[in-house]
Amino acid sequence: MVHDIKSLRIISESVWTAGQPSKTELVALHELGFALVMNIAPIDPRYSLPNEQELVQSLGMRYVHQPVSFQNPTIADFELFAATLDELRSERMLIHCAANYRVSVFYGVYAMSALGWSAQQCQALIGDVWNIEEFPVWDALARKLMALQEQA
Questions:
Q1: How many domains does the chain fold into?
Q2: Which of 38, 61, 74, 149 lies most in the core, judged by the most C-beta atoms within 10 Å?
């Protein structure tokens, strides 16, 4: 069941990224021992799960919501994402947005600084999920964020 989550990518035993999970999929994640669900998509009836926060919390998992605009993502959005992951990285978590587009960029760049990933590993995660070049605002942000990580 959980392997049917939209655009699921298993980064490690403790970190999975994905698009929007269903209620049934969230229950299955809980049963697998996940402790945290982080959602970086804005709430939108076109793709959001109604009452996701309440559902996640009712299952005994922690819920973090940090919406990132798809049309206007910022470096500040990434910095908040990275700071949150630094605090929570000991927990088994699902990080999701609507289609794993936002998450693949932010997690890939985060992994460059926190986990020693190369730019190629970051680009491979992004490219496995979507063709970022079709979305110039995201392509530009990803390039800028990767360059900043390579300079650090």
A1: 1
A2: 38
